[in-house]
Amino acid sequence: MTAVARLRGAVVAPLLAIGVAGLLCAVALLVSGASPWTAVTTVLSQLGSGTVAVDTVNSAAVYYLAALAVAVGFQMRLFNIGVEGQFRVAACVAAIVGGTVVLPPVLHTLLIIVVAVLTGAAWIAIPALLKAYRGVSEVISTIMLNAIATGMIAFLIRPETFGELRGNNITTPPIPESGWFPGVPVGSGTIFGMVFVAAALGVGYWFLLGRTRFGFELRASGESTTAASAGGVNARRTIVVALLLSGAIAGLIGLPELLGRDHAYTLSSPQGYGFTGIAIALLGRNHPVGIALGALLWAFLDKSAVALDVVGIPREIVLIMQGLIVLSVVVAYELVRRMEQRAEQRRVAAGTPEPVGAAS
Amino acid sequence: MTALVERVRTLPGWARSALIATGLVLALSITVTLTGQTQLASSGTSQAAVGLGLPILFAALGGLWSERAGIINIGLEGMMVLGTWGAAWAGYYGGPWAAMLGGLVFGGLGGLVHAVATITFHVNHIVSGVAVTLLGTGLTKYLATLVFAPLSQNPRQSPRIDGFTEFSVPGISEGLAAVEAQQRVFVSDLAGLLSGLVTGLTPIVVLGIVLVPVSYWALWRTAFGLRLRSTGESPVAAESLGVHVVAHRYVAVVTSGGLAGLGGAALVLNSAQLGYLENQVGGRGYIGLAAMIFGNWRPAGLLTGSALFGYVDGLQLRAGGEAVHALLYTATLVAVAGAVLWAIRRMWTAAAVALGAGVLVYTVYWTIESVPSEFASYAPQLVTLIVLAAASQRLRPPAWLGEPYRRGEGS
Amino acid sequence: MSAEAVELRGITKRFPGVVANDGVDLAVHTGEVHALCGENGAGKSTLMKILYGMQAPDEGTIAVGGAEMHFRTPADAIAAGIGMVHQHFMLADNLTIAENVLLGAEKQHGIGRAARARISELAGTVGLAAADGSGARSAGAPLDMLVEHLGVADRQRIEILKVLYRGARTVILDEPTAVLVPQEVEELFATVRAMRGEGYTFLFISHKLDEVRAIADRITVLRRGRTVGTVDPREVGNAELAEMMVGSELPSPESRDSSVTDREVLRVEGLGLPDPAGGRDLLDGLDLVVHAGEVLGIAGVEGNGQTELVETVMGMRRHARGRVLLSGVDVSGLSTMARRERGIGYVPEDRSRHALLGDQPLWANRVLGFQSRPPIGRHGLIDRGAARTDTERIVADFDVRTPGIDVMASALSGGNQQKLVVGRELSGDPVLLIAAHPTRGVDVGAQAGIWAELRRARRAGLAVLLVSADLDELIGLSDRLAVILGGRLVGTADPATVTPEELGTAMTGATR
């Protein structure tokens, strides 16, 4: 298949899916008596207003990290549903460490990042080992650990352990300025410094998958565990490394907001990024550029939705839009994949003069 | 002794289960006597357990139906969420029976989406499950804002709906209460545990419990059930025998969604919180799936799993960390008993592992005063993890679970 | 012999790029055993799937008992009295014998007592040993056995039983003898003859001429999707039939000079492998030696430990006993990759599962198994340029018919896929090649090409461990033969003097 055809396949499916999702949303809006046109113009007009653009980029960076964490596992058909738990525990532990130690500026930030990465990896170590050595489905074990993570965080940040009571909220000790990650002021907002870390990680992800032995073995295992094992891939090691890597990246998800805005982890710190990451990884088909576009789209829908309430349309229509996009995109990818496969078989058969019999 | 153990091994399944259950109650009873944690086997705890375990039971039954047909369903969560909205909406206008129907229908619609994606479009089951959950949650929030906000002035909550009137099984309920009040070892504890099953019942509780044997009968004792299970074991073989694999899988997954939706209705009809509340499902769909895996894809097993989740939840809610702490003592007893039994059967490795686990759990019991309440609620998840780690080799999922299948492509 | 039991006319079926059936005609008389012959890929299986309603023909008609039929699903075919026993058994391991038989036929006698009585009755007709009811246990008890506990011959009889239970009068047997040992073949033929006496009609698909002549009343030959003709086996000879099937002469193994040296490349000592399911050991006390320039052929009925032997030598199976030495160095503790790096090439028996990444381009498939060593792997990185260049070389040298190296591996025909695999495994100067069924499911042209490559590599000093079920291939390529039975090597033979018949008896253990 030529590169052009590949690209076409990769672009057509998501556009089709977004179109279908938009259409269905329009129907939903019409049924509920609102104008889809107003909704579209309202959302699009947000692009230039206030800090929406900056907020979108910041939010997209968080989503991008989450989706990368998920995508590393997806490459090997490992479903790390536990990104949610990993990132929350990692953010909490990193915030506690960052708020407790005293270090010079750069070192302090680095330490927080390292702690977050290690915590994320540690939280997935149990499912990884269970999967590799006991054959336990990582889906179930990571879901269980998501729940346990909630308990763990509640335990860690209660005032008797490491937390502090502030007003109505329980929080970790605030990270001093030496531990912050400075951002870049743009207009009336500030782009998180971690945005650039996320972008660099995307490049690293691309290189890892396409150019390294580990990336090859990861993808080979994802496509066929049997062929990979006959080709000398150590399945257990690949599973463990892939999941640890996934968990390590997941550990970073909470940091853009922690180091760039909040400077403490609280009971009301945001949740759900792990599941958003799954959706965006699906949307971007595990491709570093695709994921980036997916993350931007998702973040933009999130940030511009607020304006919908003003014109009397429930902003939750965006949630439906997002859900529909994911559902239709996975269907579209599957259909396109099948079509491409058939087309390729026809092309190969047409291009080879040899008389072929049926597969028996 | 060895001969006795061998005789036990040849007993029919139900008798062995009864024996094991008796052993567990005995262990619990000993714990109550020695630690004084009467809540461990009180009627209040067991009633709370039934209420908390019910939604999980429905979700687990949903998982059973879908996965027996070979379709992994982690979309149960989303289907339950849809069910809560459907139940609250229908219940607000039509009362509790309508609420059940509403939950059933909305959950079933979620199941239909999952079925279309996985069966017709061959999307990976887990991917589709995640997408269905996302869509279900989003749709529910939208509908709640649209429909409930004008009624309750709160987009996150529905107005209060009418619940079922509770009833108790006459005679038995009072009898058990009387026995429990006598505070006799074992007998009173057993009565306390059983009373939850006969006291403060509602039709939806009865339905949930009845659906366990009904599911068994439908899936294992009817031609339809045989066909449905065959699509999860070997769809190629089933197709070659003229079984309409696609149709049976659709029925299975839509039923699965409907059951999950009933789980949502069970949450909405819970007397403590009658109505829809955002995030009230809170991962119970996933827990239901875990309970089903815990139960080895069998109806009786998933009932046990759901009961375990409900029990620990209820215990921690009623009696807090100290009661859960006492459970560690029970766990030690069970581990030691297991070690002894295995040793008699000369299964030394298993015996050693059980003994080691017993020592470990007892050490934990001995070193800490109380399980922090933050952790106590998540004990079932921890137990599930341990069970998966210890028994994963003995679990028997349907052979074709999650595998891709297309009509006419069998070799 | 009044109306035809089954009559197919002008059946055409096209797949993307392939015409599997091209105007095929087939007429089967009532009460006969009609054989359908043809090489692998001649279109036999496709034709039978059409007759059984699993696939719809693009053109042509199907008539049963003189009436034209349109089968959309197997259920339609079953209703018309046609049943099929697939080559790969269509049994659900996790269901019981009774459940497997009843599945899809619950309307016949329900799923209760009446149904079980009927199953027990038919079990006698098909000679099902497992359901005979032995000793004190009640006659119905074995019907509740899970199918996973049964052997191959019993499974086949359950398949026939399934078909009869549905009231089939015409039974399609798709390569029924491929999995059986000769004694079991004889028993099967006895059952078939007895049932023919009761008026059943059989369509018997095979490419084994001797068997076809032994059982069939008439033979229809297919070649490359077309009907060549229908003949009476009493009137035509083997050579004629073979020519109808292949179009020319059988690809017969050539005789040639020995290139065997006395340098040991592979030595296996006391190899044993426990059954993870707890049964009898899969391999037990197995010793063998392969020298440079030598082909050691492993003969045996499938399922006697060949797969396990190969995978243990490759280091893909855990918990093996004994030692594997490569050129005198013990590699028993090494990983699959380490063994490959030391010069083992591996052509697995199931190419689509074990040798290829179907959705990856050809050049990425070239990387598989070579990702750790030059020229492709270096310092943990993959050199794409080197992989592409070397893929081009394989495509040219091994005559892989493809428009380019960017096509997905799954798009190639089986023969071209296998040529790519063989080419890959022969690159990087291996000292030992393990080839399991290297020409299974490939067309005749590719088969000849692969055989030529194996001979060339052998002449260049390669040691080859060849596992095959095709006796012609074994005898034609091997310098020595070893027979495997029940996970042990039970005998050796000289391919120059041994006959397929002699080998066949050794493989079944009948000689001892």
Key features?
heterotrimer, B: about 400 residues, 16 helices, C: about 500 residues, Rossmann fold, 4 domains, six-stranded mixed sheet, 18 helices, about 30% helix, membrane (chain A), cell membrane (chain A)
Are there runs of chain B of 5+ residues with pLDDT below 50, and where? none
For the record, the CATH architecture of one domain in chain B stands as Orthogonal Bundle
> For the report, how would you describe the main beta sheet of chain A?
2 strands, antiparallel
Mean pLDDT of chain A: 88
Order of strands in the sheet with the most strands of chain A?
A: 1-2
The quaternary state of the protein chains shown equals heterotrimer
Please specify the SSE layout and strand pairing.
The complex is a heterotrimer of chains A (360), B (411) and C (512).
Chain A: H1 3-31, H2 36-45, H3 52-74, H4 83-100, H5 105-134, H6 138-156, E1 164-166, E2 169-171, E3 184-186, E4 189-191, H7 194-211, H8 213-223, H9 225-230, H10 235-252, H11 255-262, H12 273-283, H13 288-310, H14 317-351
Antiparallel strand pairs in A: 1-2, 3-4
Chain B: H1 2-9, H2 13-35, H3 43-68, H4 76-120, H5 125-152, H6 172-181, H7 187-195, H8 203-220, H9 223-233, H10 235-240, H11 245-268, H12 284-294, H13 299-344, H14 348-367, H15 373-376, H16 379-391
Helix pairs in contact in B: 2-13, 3-7, 3-8, 3-11, 3-12, 3-13, 4-5, 4-11, 4-12, 6-7, 8-9, 9-11, 12-13, 12-16, 13-14
Chain C: E1 4-15, E2 18-29, E3 33-37, H1 44-51, E4 59-64, E5 67-69, H2 74-79, E6 82-85, H3 97-102, H4 106-109, H5 113-125, H6 152-165, E7 170-174, H7 182-197, E8 201-206, H8 209-215, E9 218-223, E10 226-231, H9 238-246, E11 264-273, E12 283-291, E13 295-299, H10 306-313, E14 321-326, E15 329-330, H11 336-341, E16 344-347, H12 351-355, H13 362-367, E17 377-378, E18 381-382, H14 384-397, H15 414-425, E19 432-436, H16 444-459, E20 463-467, H17 471-477, E21 480-485, E22 488-493, H18 500-508
Parallel strand pairs in C: 3-8, 3-9, 6-7, 7-8, 13-20, 13-21, 16-19, 19-20
Antiparallel strand pairs in C: 1-2, 1-4, 4-5, 9-10, 11-12, 11-14, 14-15, 17-18, 21-22
Helix pairs in contact in C: 5-6, 14-15, 15-16
Transmembrane segments (chain A): 57-75, 87-104, 110-130, 139-157, 190-209, 239-259, 317-336
Organism (chain A): Pseudonocardia ammonioxydans
Keywords (chain A): Cell membrane, Membrane, Transmembrane, Transmembrane helix
